[in-house]
Structures are given as structure tokens and as C-alpha cells.
Amino acid sequence: MEPNSLLNEHSLEFRVRYQETDQMGVVYHGNYFTYFEMGRTELLRSAIGISYRDLEASETFMVIAKAECSYRKSAKYDDILTLKTRVIRMTRFKIEHEYRLFRDQELLAVGHTILVTVDRSGKLTAGPSWMQKYNSTN
Amino acid sequence: MEPNSLLNEHSLEFRVRYQETDQMGVVYHGNYFTYFEMGRTELLRSAIGISYRDLEASETFMVIAKAECSYRKSAKYDDILTLKTRVIRMTRFKIEHEYRLFRDQELLAVGHTILVTVDRSGKLTAGPSWMQKYNSTN
Amino acid sequence: MEPNSLLNEHSLEFRVRYQETDQMGVVYHGNYFTYFEMGRTELLRSAIGISYRDLEASETFMVIAKAECSYRKSAKYDDILTLKTRVIRMTRFKIEHEYRLFRDQELLAVGHTILVTVDRSGKLTAGPSWMQKYNSTN
Amino acid sequence: MEPNSLLNEHSLEFRVRYQETDQMGVVYHGNYFTYFEMGRTELLRSAIGISYRDLEASETFMVIAKAECSYRKSAKYDDILTLKTRVIRMTRFKIEHEYRLFRDQELLAVGHTILVTVDRSGKLTAGPSWMQKYNSTN
């Protein structure tokens, strides 16, 4: 597979769990970051054909350097949501994702994360070959 | 109490729970937003003398419009952390907080949130008097 | 639909999220109860054709009176799990579910919950007609 | 310290977080198991003088074999709760805890857990000396 396929948008559908709500009757805002994690995991699997689990098994870890989310409408219990995830920037050490969360056509939230690749000790380290290749050709 | 006391920094100490860790052996990044929520709740209680629970009971809700966090060092299980919270901007409808999370003198993360005040139906509404007063004099 | 269809086992497949792990490298034990909640929600939807969301909208709430889980093997990040849920006892006020969580053929955990039906104030109240009907014929 | 001090009841006070609530307006039932984890961690620290973090660092892990909770009254947002934790049974391989959760004098929930000691590979292994000593004299 080509690393450029990472730039394609990936779409993930899932249902909101009761546990994810808070007493305001909506999804607790911190849980959107769990959704984003699901989105980038599935994007990686579908675009590059590897699982993040295997990446960790090969001693490459992607840690969050920055995470943000803008909330427009609330997600609710039992909603079926669609999360659209894509990579908007990538170097040998860093991947930036953008996330857009929808309920049907309605945009609920937009998120961004920056991940950096580290080894088990937490030291910055070049990512896997598909990240390095991408960098060298852009 | 004076609304300006909201501008004072509030300090909260707490211990990391096992449940908050993930398999990387550190606190899961989404959980920092739960810490920030604890910080602004205690700032409100100590600066204005009211609980957010009472605020909701009076039909004023503060919902998250934006949340972000920059991660520098990982918090770990059983760490005693210190969260410093302050208000950096406030209008009749909106409060912006800044959060700095420390382990001893070491800065682990910096966060920001923007909250807007809404009624039960989710409609934007002016916040309680201490928010309105603040706005009128600034 | 017939209430007796609740006695059929329902099968739900889902993937373990990174957020659900802890630093032991396995799913945190408390999260199994979130899985069980997903199982009984989907059993209700498939057997009775209603969502728990609609049940709450009609002012019937099912609250947990007892929950337990026996853990045999650990679920891990990115595992695809199968949760088998069935009702093992039901009266007008109470439903008892049994849950068995599998990774392929391997049984990871067995759970039980007892739910009671209450109104918004928390007062014990007879459940919806399919619960009452069940009771009257058993 | 004496292992028998584990049999003394330990009392932990903490405040309910907004994140811990669900849309029923109460603490989500699965979160009680996080509270219980906090209780047994602090009991261990106060009775034996070691942290569970250090125990893991010495390659002894305590994994949950069974967990249960009976729910009587709901804990709510911002409540100050008191958790009373004690060991009710202990062998070289196993510890059983009992938990009682209070809001003031009101008993909200009663829990039990069984933990077994394993090594990093998950193999059953005798616990630390204070567990072995306890066993040999009882």
C-alpha cells in the first residue's frame, strides 16, 4: 500500500454507549478523544494495512503531543455517529490528524491531534518506513 | 466574593488512579480533560463560593465549546499531581480557563477550555450575576 | 414481538479500544460492565424491538441493583470480542441478565446483572408491558 | 508493619467527578469499581506501608478474578463519599476485599473483589512476604 492513501478520508460508524454520557444528557466532552483514537486506528489499518497493535509490538509508539476539539452540537446516547478521519500533515516523526464527527449530515465536532513517534523509553524516534517514505517525497 | 477572585490561580492536588492509565503505562490523554474539569469546579467553589452542582440546579449549564491540551511529559499511576487553574478571559456568555498540570516542579501539560453558558434547552444564555458583573466592568 | 424472545441469546461483536486498557496491558476490569451494558441494550433492541433510549423517554428507567463479573482471561487492545447476552430471570420489576464474553472460542469472562425498573424519582415501578406480560405467564 | 493491620478497616474520602456521572444523573455503576481500586490501594499503603506501584515494579501483579457490587442508593455529582475498605480473606495467592461506600451515614453500595497474584506472564505466583506470612499463621 501507498502511504499517500493515508491522506484519503476514512469513515467509521459507531453507536454512543450509555457509559459515555454525563448528567447533562450528552456525551462527556473528554470521550470525543476516545472516538478520535478509534478513527486514526482504523484509518491506519485501512490505509497502510497494519494495526497500531503491531506497531507497538515492533517497539514504535505514537504518543499524543497535542489534542483539541471544537464542539458544535452534542452527541447523545444511542446516536449512530460517523467519524471522518484524515491525515493532514506527516513527517518522519509526527502525524497530524483531523477528525469530523457527524450525526447523519449534521457536523457535531471537529478535532485535531498531533502524534509523535517514540521508542519504549519515550525518546523521539523516526516512525515506520511508510512515514519516512512519505517525508522523503514531500 | 468578588468575581475577580476567579482570576487568581487555584491549586488542586490529587493522585493518579490505576483506571486512568493505558497500556503505554501512562495516563490516557483523554483523562486530562477530566482533571481540568475538577480544576475549574474547585476554582469556582473557592473563588465564588458556589458549586457547579448548584449552578446546574438553577438551570444554568456550562458546556464545552472548545478544549485543547499540549502534552509535554507523561503522568503516571500513583503520581501526586498538582493542577493549577485560572480564568484567562470571561464575558457574560463565555469563560476561558487555562490549566497547568505539574508533578512536583515538572510541567506535564498545559490545557485550555472555552465554556459557554446555556439553559436546559441548550440555548445560549447569559451566565450568573458574577459573570455579568465581570463583563460590565471590564 | 414476544417477550420470550428476550430469552434467546444475543451476540454482539466489537473491538477493544486503546482507552479501555490499563498499564497491565489488558482491558481494565471495570470496563467489562460497559460491555455488558452494550449487550443488554442490543438484546432489548433485537428481541423487543425498542431502544432503551425510548424506554427512558417514556419515563421508565432500569437501574442496576447488582453487578458481578468473573474474569478468566484478559481481553487485550484491538481484540475482536463477542459478547453473548441473555435474560435468565424476569419479573414485573426486575430483569436478570447473564453475559459471556469470548475472544474466538475462548471464554474470557462471565457476568451477571440485576436491573430494577424505577420512575424518574427512583421509585420502584412496574416495567413496560412486555415485562408485565412475561411475569403473568410464568 | 504487621499483615494483620490489613484487617483493619481503611477509610477514604473523595468527591464525585462530573465525568463519573451518566445521563440518569447519578454515578455510572461501572465507576464504583474504580472507587474500590482506590480503596484497596490506600489500604495497602496505610496497612503495609508499600504502594501497589512498587509491588508491580517488583514484578508482582494483582489481577481481578471476581468483582461484584450491590447498589442501594445512587451516588451523585459533587457528593463527598466515604469508602471503607477491609480485607476479609487472604491466602498466599489471593486477597478478598470488602468495600462499603457511604454518603455521610447513608450506605450507598457494598462491593467485593477477589484478587490473585500473578507474575508478568500472568502465571499464578505466591504474593509478597506479608501475604505468605499471613497465610502461614492462619
Structural features:
5-stranded antiparallel beta sheet, alpha+beta, 5 strands, 138 residues, homotetramer, elongated
Describe the structure.
The structure is a homotetramer of 138-residue chains. With 138 residues, chain A is of the alpha+beta class. The first copy, chain A, contains 3 helices and 5 strands. In chain A, strands 1-3-4-5-2 form a 5-stranded antiparallel sheet. The two termini of chain A are 17 Å apart.
Concise summary:
The structure is a homotetramer of 138-residue chains. Chain A is of the alpha+beta class and 138 residues long.
**Unreliable residue runs of chain A:** none
Number of strands of chain A: 5
> Helicity range of the residues of chain A?
10-25%
Quaternary structure state of the chains depicted:
homotetramer
Average pLDDT of chain A works out at 92
Largest interface: A-B, 21 and 21 residues
Radius of gyration of chain A: 16 Å
Q: Strand fraction band of chain A?
A: 35-45%
**For the largest beta sheet of chain A, what order do the strands appear in spatially?**
1-3-4-5-2
N-to-C span of chain A: 17 Å
Tell me, what's the shape of chain A? Answer: elongated
Structural class of chain A: alpha+beta
Counting DSSP H or I runs of 4 or more residues, the number of helices of chain A is 3
Encode the helix/strand succession of chain A as letters. Answer: EHHEEEEH
**What kind of sheet is the major sheet of chain A?**
5 strands, antiparallel
